[in-house]
Amino acid sequence: MVLALTLVTSVFCAQAVLATPTGLNNIPTADVVAEQVLVVQGFSQFGAERETSWFGGLKYGPAANWEVGIDDTSLGAGSAGGPVLQVKYRAPLNRRVALGLGAANISTDSERNGDVFPYAVISAALGDANGHIGYSAQKDNKAWFVGADGAINPKVTLRADWTQVADGEESVSSLGFIAPLTASWLVEGWASFPSAEGAETSYVVKLDYVIPLGRR
Q: Among 5, 45, 103, 149, which is least packed by CB within 10 angstroms?
C-alpha cells in the first residue's frame, strides 16, 4: 500500500497515493497483491523542515486480479488524516500488458483526508524492465503519471516515477528501490523531488510483512 503518504499537508496534497495501492514510489501500477496474500505495512515520511509522519496499513488479494486495502494516516506526530481505503482491479490485456482500474484515498471525511483518487493505469513488460502510464481524475487534481522499474540484481529493484500535482501546475518525481530482507520481509525507500518553488525533498522508508493466507 504504498503509492504511501499523507500528502494532504504538502505540495503532494492532491497526488494521493493514499490507501496505497500496489505501485512504485508515488504512483499506482496495474499490479495487485497475489490472491489470498495479506501484506502488513508500516512506513514513515520525513525530510527537511517537516515533522516525521508515521503510517500503517494492510492490503489483501481477496480474489484473482483484485486488491483491497486500508491505511491509517494518523499514527504519530506530524501525521494527519485518518483511515482511508483503496480498491483495484487488474485486467490482463495480453501476456505482457495489463490495465489497472482503481480508486484510492476513499474515506468518509474528505476535508481531513482529501478527495477520492480514481485512476486508470497501463503496465507493460519491456524486456528486463516494466513501464507504467496512467491518469487520475481526482477532483481539482486531474493528473498524468508515468514510471518504470527494473531489477539491477536478484535482490534489488530500482523504481522511478513522475506525476503531476496541483491540477497539473506542478509535478513530483521520485527515485527509490525495493528489496527483500527475508522470505517474508521487504524494505522500500525513495526520495521525492517536488517542482514547486521552495518545496523540499522528502523521503519515505517502508517495511512490508507478507502473510500467505491460502492453503499451501
A: 103
